[in-house]
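Support request, please re-run this one:
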Amino acid sequence: MKKSKRTLIGDILIIIICFFVILVCILPMLNLLAQSLSSSQSVINGKVTFLPVLYNNDDFSHHYGITMESYKYVFLDPAFTRSMWWTAILTVICTFVSLTMTILCAYPLTYDWLKGKTLINTIIIFTMYFSAGTIPNYILMKTLGLLNNPLVLIIPNCLSVFNMIILRSFFYGIPDSLRESAEIDGANPFTVLIRIYLPLSAPVLATLALFYAVGRWNGFTDALLYITTAPQWVPIQLKLWQLIQNMTSIDVSTVEMVSGNVPRASDAMKAAAIMFATVPILVVYPWLQRYFISGVTIGAVKG
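Re-run finished. Output below.
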């Protein structure tokens, strides 16, 4: 079936808009990558483009061009690499715990005979819109003895109501006949969950795992508030913020003492640190991308 001319023009316009949106999102990352691969002299003299410029003049060849010095600085910093490994381990643990809590919360709500089901749903959704606030949460964590404890990065945010609603909606879409046939064969609710619901929920579980992993990897506020005197539990985003803050202070003091153009190595180092903290989580997307659209769409429509 041939498309009409108006429909074809509309498709072309949508493609052009999407292309420019993607371009706008990618350009800052390319600029950041260029800065991370450039020398401090290239940055201070504006010789950085979307790809680092190679300066042909022999007198200035040592100032411009691609260099890995900033990445060497980041990789050789034991505190930064330790923070990276800790964040990777923390992300895996939090993703597993959060998925487990989400499944255990969503699955019982699919049973119509569950007593107080309406009240439980109301209470859960209420927490989605209202919370105690920063200060009460801090007092609670302090009372529970979780300050400067790695558990404070796992327990408070181990369940997302939004993700639970997506999974519950997906469970609603699974035919009751499958569950009833299994129950006739003597399967208990736990067996039904393991043998029927979870195998059929691979797309939505992969999507939620991606949500939880990205959320924990990019987590910053909880670590800033609750991890103050335990540097071994500092995640990568907070470590990156501390690195940028320290380098900014050095730049300000340097500019105040020295007039003229002062080469600031920290600009390239900041860019390298940001790339170092961003790329690992981006690598996860291609592995889960085929589940992403189907998982969100099915979980949002069914039920």
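The two ends are 33 Å apart (CA to CA). The CA atoms of residues 34 and 51 lie 5 Å apart.
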